[in-house]
Amino acid sequence: MTTSRKQLHLAAHFPGVNNTTVWQDPRSQSQIDFSSFVHLARTAERGLFDFFFLAEGLRLREHKGRIHDLDVVGRPESLTVLNALAAVTERLGLAATVNATFNEPYELARRLATLDHLSDGRAAWNVVTSSDAFTGENFRRGGYLDHADRYTRAAEFVATARELWDSWSEDGTPRPFAHSGQHFDIRGEFTVPRSPQGHPVVIQAGDSPAGRDFAASAADVIFTRHGTLEAGRAFYADVKGRLAAHGRTHDSLKIMPGVTFVLGDTAAEAQEKAHHIRRQQVSPQNALLTAEQIWGVDLSHLDPDGPLPGFDPEPDPKLTQGRTRLGDPQEIADRWRALSEAKGLSLRETVIEATGRQSFIGTPETVAAEMDAFVTQDAADGFILVPHLTPGGLDDFVDRVVPLLQERGAFRTEYEGGTLRSHLGLPRPVARPVWKG
Fold first, then answer.
1. Same domain, 170 and 308
2. Which among 125, 132, 223, 403 is least surrounded, fewest beta carbons within 10 Å?
3. Is 271 a member of any domain?
4. Transmembrane residues, as ranges (predicted)?
C-alpha cells in the first residue's frame, strides 16, 4: 500500500503474569500451554500486526515471603517460546524480552541471530535492565550491579551484540571480533552467519531520562506508557528530539506505548464492561496487596471496602520482592488520600481508580478514531496492545477495529515484506568492518 498518510503500527503483548490479566474469567486459559501462545500469535498475524511481544521474569516475585499469586504457575523463557512460534507463523515479528544485566553478549547475540534465521528475519529483542539483588540471587553475580550502571552496561551490551552480528560479512565470510570496554572484554569468532535482518530489531522499555537517551542512541522501538494525548505528544517530541545528537533520523525510532482496550456496541456498554474488568483486576485481596506495597506493612486486618490507612507509610524494601516500585510511598499515599477524600472512595475503589491502565474504551469506531488521532498528532507511532484475557483477548480487536483502521487508510491491508524491519519501515543495517586479528 503506497500512501503519504502516516501509518499506524500494531503489536500484541501476551497477557501473562501481570495485573492487567483477569484470571477468574471463565474464558481465561493457561499462560504456559503452547496453544495459548499460538492462539494469540496467529490472531495478531491475522490482524497484520507488526510483532508479538513476550515479557520476561527471572525470578518468581514474592510478597510477605510468599510467591506472588500471579507467578504460581511459572514463567517460561521467552526465546524458547518464540523459536517454536516461528514454525507456526509466517510474517509476524517475534519479540523477546531478555535482561541485559544477567546475560552475556556472545550467548544472547547467538540466540537472537538463530531466531532471526529460523523465522526468516522476524526476530526482535526487548532490552531490559535490573539492579535488583533479589533477582540477582538466582545468578552467580547476584546484586553486583549498581543501579546507576544498569544503562551503561545495557548500552555496551547492545553495541557488543551489534559487533558480533557484524562479524560475518554480507557475502557470508566469518571475521574475528574483539571488544574491550568497561563491562565486557571478549574476542574470538561468532558462530552464526549474518541473519536476514542483519541485526534483529532492538526494543527498549523505559521512561527515565537515562532510558530515553538509551532508546535514542540504540533502539529501533521504544515501549512506553502514556495515558493522555498531551503526555504522549510531550514524550514523543522529547525522545524524537534526542535522535539527531546520535546521528539518527526522525523515522529511525518507533514509539509504541503499551495500551489496553475495551470494546462495546455503545459507549455506555463499553464503560460498563471496563468497570467490570477493573473490579476483576483489583479484587479485595489485590487491593490490600497493592496498598501494602505503598504503606510497607501488613494491612490484612483492614477492610478493603473501608478507608485507607490512617498512618504514614513505613517503607520496607523486603516486603515485596521482584516487583517494580510504584514511586515515592509518601507522595503516593498523599495523592491517594486526596483522591479518596475528594470522591468518597474506599481503599479498594481508590486502588482501582489510581492504578487504572485502560487506555481506549468505546465502540470500535471510537477506538479506531482515537488511535488514529494519537498517531496523526504525533503522540505515538503505534501501539502494543495488552489484552486482559489469555489467549482470546485480542480477537474482538482484530475482528472489529482493524477493518475500521484499514478503511481510514491508517493501517496496512496486507504485509508488504517478510521481515519485521520491513513491517516497521526500518532499513536493514549494512555489516560494518570489525577488528581483525
1. no
2. 403
3. no
4. none
d(CA 296, CA 358): 27
Q: Give pLDDT tens digits for 394-408.
A: 999 999 999 999 999
Would you say residue 219 lies in a domain?
yes
> What does the block give as the cell for 334?
498523599
Q: What's the structural domain count of the chain?
A: 2
| Helix ranges restricted to H, 182-255 | 209-218, 229-241
Q: Residues with Cβ < 8 Å from 321, sequence gap 6 or more?
A: 61, 62, 63, 134
pTM for this entry: 0.91
Asked if the structure places residue 68 within a domain, the reply is yes
pLDDT (tens digit per residue) in 211-255: 899 899 999 999 988 778 999 999 999 999 999 999 999 999 999
Same domain, 338 and 389: no
- In which domain, by residue range, is 324 found? 283-354
User: Would residue 3 count as lying in a domain?
Assistant: no
